[in-house]
């Protein structure tokens, strides 16, 4: 099975952009800024492992759900 390099390259670009957007969102939230879900425009909430079983960032509706690993 041959790999289509142009499709693979496009996937890499999309993955890199998504990662950078998530990194920017985490930095803004950790700085205390209000960040809104791109779909429903509700404020996102940061869940830390000290208080919750789940750790990550999500909106109340679940449109945005980014799992985070706190070390």
What do these coordinates show?
- This protein has 71 residues and is an alpha+beta fold.
- Helix content is 37%, strand content 13%.
- The chain contains one helix and three strands, in the order αβββ.
- The protein has one helix spanning 5-30; strands at residues 45-47, 56-58, 65-67.
- Strands 1-2-3 form a three-stranded antiparallel sheet, with helices on one face.
- Strand 2 and strand 3 form a beta hairpin.
- It is elongated.
Number of β-strand runs? 3
Number of H/I helices:
1
Helices and strands, in N-to-C order? HEEE
The gyration radius over C-alpha positions equals 15 Å
Please name the defining characteristics of this protein.
single chain, about 70 residues, alpha+beta, three-stranded antiparallel beta sheet, 3 strands, about 15% strand, elongated
Q: Which secondary structure elements does this structure contain, and how are they paired or packed?
A:
Blueprint: H1 5-30, E1 45-47, E2 56-58, E3 65-67
Antiparallel strand pairs: 1-2, 2-3
Q: What's the gist of this structure?
A:
By secondary structure, the protein is an alpha+beta fold. 37% of the residues lie in helices and 13% in strands.
């Amino acid at each position: 099975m041959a790999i289509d390099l142009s499709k693979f390259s496009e996937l890499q670009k999309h993955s890199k952009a998504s990662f950078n957007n998530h990194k920017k969102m985490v930095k803004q939230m950790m700085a205390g800024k209000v960040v809104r879900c791109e779909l429903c425009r509700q404020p996102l909430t940061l869940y830390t492992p000290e208080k919750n079983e789940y750790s990550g960032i999500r909106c109340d509706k679940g449109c945005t759900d980014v799992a985070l690993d706190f070390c």
